[in-house]
Amino acid sequence: MTHKIAVLPGDGVGTEIVAEAEKLLGALADRFGLDVEIERGEIGGAAVDATGSPLPEATLALSRGADAVLLGAVGGPKWDNEARERRPETGLLGIRRELALFANLRPAILYPELAGASSLRPELVAGLDIMIVRELTGGIYFGEPRGIETLDSGERRGYNTLEYRESEVERIARRAFEIAARRQGRVCSVDKANVLEVSQLWRETVERVHSEYSGIELSHMYVDNAAMQLVRDPRQFDVVVTGNMFGDILSDCAAMLTGSIGMLPSASLDENGKGLYEPVHGSAPDIAGQGIVNPLATLLSVAMMLRYTLDEAGMADRVEQAVASVIAAGTRTADIAGGGAAVSTAAMGDAVVAALDA
Ligand code: IPM
Ligand code: MG
């Protein structure tokens, strides 16, 4: 069966990292018979420049027709002063929403050889392996009403709405429990139920769904405490499930614990296993075009694509092992070199491809 993959390079370092992903997919096709058909599309600032929209209809159609979407990154200073409907981020939020990619999986894994790059002491992060499951198409990011209005007094008032329906909480909770079943079997649900009604409903709903998953241990934590625990003793977490904005914040925090945001992949999945895969790091305009960006987060995103959408767990393992062996062998891009010798983006991609057979 041919898997259709829409590749959306986007902005900044996006082009450079998706080129390495295409190289990897090509190698998997040649050597292990992966059957993929790749088509490229525009998103983000690049799409604004080309079409006036950060998410053109053609890109949406391409992505809807694909089995999986691989995204580079969006955004950059060039578009920072655009109106919201022309901002690159609006394209990203739009594709998440339009494809109903409600489950965002953000692993934070520490590679032993990179423990020194963590902002925490090595003994606190050794063996760190957290999976953040972030609700991605609801909550305050999309709630209505929203806007900025001018009051009679002439003062302006900005407002957004934090809302969750039971059905939205149920499906993300199910995803978290299912993922935990294949890991250590522990889920921590993060909310602000001591203050917010929406969090109270979130907590009640997660508990109700939990009654169907007897083998999984469930705990709850307020978001402020969760932020503190992540930097105090991060290894207490296995799977963390939370809403859109809390997940945005906590996943950056967890990423930093690994010391190498350039290494972290992500998956955003719909109800049927279709997914959008992207590195957690952004478009890094400061280093774009120099051939020095770390492609490993994107290559690991390909591994997640193989696992969660293409049903090729064996190839996913192979890619993850290849990355681990390249790291163990001391190959480093500048972001993880700690000032030592660094290789280029393309050389890192080549090293992973070469390690696939090992
Ligand atoms: C992320 C990013 C996005 C978000 C931005 C770019 C809209 O921070 O994927 O975490 O807030 O979701
Ligand atoms: Mg974020």
- Count of strand segments: 12
CATH homologous superfamily annotation of the largest domain = Isopropylmalate Dehydrogenase
What's the quaternary structure here? Answer: single chain
Largest sheet entry: 10 strands, mixed
Estimated radius of gyration? 20 Å
Number of helices: 12
H/E element sequence: EHEHHEHEHEEEHEHEHEHEEHHH
The count of domains is 2
Q: Can you tell me the overall shape?
A: globular
CATH architecture of the largest domain: 3-Layer(aba) Sandwich
Fraction of residues in H or I helices: 40-55%
Walk me through what this model shows.
The protein has 358 residues and is α/β, with parallel strands linked by helices. Helices cover 41% and strands 19% of the residues. It is built from 12 helices and 12 strands. The protein has helices at residues 14-32, 44-51, 57-65, 88-98, 122-125, 166-181, 197-210, 223-232, 244-257, 296-308, 313-328, 345-355; strands at residues 3-10, 36-40, 68-73, 103-109, 129-135, 147-150, 156-159, 186-191, 217-222, 239-242, 265-269, 275-279. The strands form 2 sheets. Strands 2-1-3-12-11-4-5-10-8-9 form a 10-stranded mixed sheet, with helices on both faces. The relative contact order is 0.16. The mean pLDDT is 96. It binds 3-isopropylmalic acid (IPM) and magnesium ion. Magnesium ion is lined by residues 248, 252.
